[in-house]
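Q: I'm building a small set of examples for a reading group on sequence design. Run inverse folding on the following structure and report the sequence directly after it, with nothing in between.
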C-alpha cells in the first residue's frame, strides 16, 4: 500500500513538473513572439521613415505641412507637441503631487476620503476620449478658452492626473514610518517632516509616475481631436519671449496647434505612398521623444536614489 502511494506521489510530482516545463515554454514563446513583432514593426518604421528624415531636399524638421510630400515637414507638429506637453506638465505635476500628499499624509480616514480614493483609482483606467469630451465641455465651451494650446494641455493634464496621484501615494506610502517618527522626535512639524523628508525620499517613485503619464499624453490623439487640434497648420505659436518689458508673453497659450499624432494621422490617411513614408518618419520622431523623456527620468531617478541616505 505504501509502495503504491509512493509511486502515485512520484507520478504526480513528475506530472506537475512536466506542466511547469510546458508553461515555461509557452511563456517563453509568447515573449519571443511579442519581441519579434515589436522588432519587425520598429524595423519597418525605420526602413520607411529614415529616407525622408535624412534627405537634404526634404528639410523634414524645418518644413511645415504641405500638399506636396516633397515639401512637407514636422516643424509645426513638433513645436505644438512640445508646447502642449509643457502646459500638461505645469498643470498636472503640482496638482497631482499635492493631491497625493494630501490624501496620504493629511486626509482623515473616513467614507469621504475613501470615496475620493476609489474614484481617483477608477479614473486612471477611463478611456481618453472621455477626458476629451470633458475638456471640450469645461475648457473650450464653459471657460471659452477655444481650440488652443492651453485647453489641450489642461485636457491632457486631466488625463494623467490620476496616474500621478496614485503613484505619488504609493511612493509616499513606501517611506518607512521610522523616518517620520524620528523627525517628530526632534520637534519637527508635520509640514517640515513632509517637505524635508517624506517628499524628497519619495521623489524617485513620483518621477516614475510623471514619466508614465507624460509618455501616455504625448501619444494621445482622441482627446485632442475632440478639443479641436488642427491636422494641417502652417505657422508656429507666438514666442513666449518678447523683446519688450515684461519680456514674457502668454499669447502662445491661445494659439491653434497641431501635434505629432495628428500629423501622422493626416499623412497616413492620404493615398500617396510618399506621405506614408513621412508618417513613418514622424512616428520615429515621436518614439525618440518618448525615449528621451524616459531616459531623463531614469537619470534623475538614479541621481535622486543615489543621494538618499537613511
Amino acid at each position: 500500500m505504501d509502495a503504491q502511494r509512493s509511486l502515485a506521489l512520484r507520478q504526480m510530482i513528475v506530472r506537475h513538473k512536466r506542466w511547469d516545463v510546458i508553461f515555461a515554454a509557452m511563456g517563453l514563446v509568447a515573449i519571443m513572439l511579442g519581441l519579434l513583432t515589436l522588432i519587425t514593426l520598429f524595423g519597418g518604421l525605420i526602413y520607411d521613415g529614415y529616407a525622408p528624415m535624412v534627405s537634404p531636399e526634404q528639410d523634414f524638421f524645418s518644413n511645415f505641412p504641405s500638399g506636396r510630400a516633397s515639401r512637407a515637414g514636422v516643424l509645426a507638429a513638433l513645436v505644438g507637441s512640445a508646447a502642449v506637453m509643457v502646459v500638461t506638465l505645469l498643470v498636472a505635476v503640482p496638482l497631482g503631487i499635492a493631491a497625493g500628499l494630501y490624501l496620504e499624509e493629511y486626509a482623515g480616514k473616513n467614507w469621504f476620503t475613501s470615496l475620493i480614493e476609489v474614484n481617483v483609482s477608477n479614473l486612471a483606467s477611463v478611456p481618453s476620449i472621455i477626458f476629451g469630451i470633458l475638456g471640450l465641455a469645461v475648457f473650450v465651451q464653459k471657460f471659452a478658452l477655444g481650440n488652443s494650446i492651453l485647453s489641450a494641455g489642461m485636457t491632457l493634464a486631466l488625463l494623467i492626473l490620476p496616474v500621478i496621484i496614485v503613484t505619488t501615494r504609493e511612493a509616499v506610502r513606501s517611506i518607512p514610518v521610522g523616518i517620520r517618527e524620528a523627525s517628530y522626535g526632534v520637534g519637527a512639524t508635520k509640514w517640515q517632516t513632509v517637505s524635508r523628508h517624506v517628499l524628497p525620499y519619495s521623489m524617485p517613485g513620483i518621477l516614475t509616475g510623471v514619466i508614465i503619464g507624460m509618455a501616455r499624453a504625448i501619444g494621445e490623439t482622441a482627446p485632442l481631436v475632440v478639443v479641436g487640434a488642427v491636422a494641417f497648420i502652417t505657422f508656429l505659436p507666438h514666442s513666449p519671449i518678447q523683446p519688450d518689458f515684461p519680456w514674457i508673453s502668454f499669447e502662445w497659450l491661445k494659439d491653434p496647434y497641431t501635434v505629432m499624432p495628428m500629423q501622422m494621422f493626416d499623412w497616413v490617411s492620404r493615398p500617396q505612398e510618399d506621405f506614408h513614408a513621412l508618417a513613418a518618419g514622424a512616428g520615429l520622431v515621436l518614439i525618440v521623444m518618448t525615449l528621451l523623456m524616459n531616459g531623463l527620468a531614469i537619470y534623475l531617478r538614479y541621481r535622486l536614489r543615489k543621494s538618499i541616505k537613511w
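The mean pLDDT is 86.
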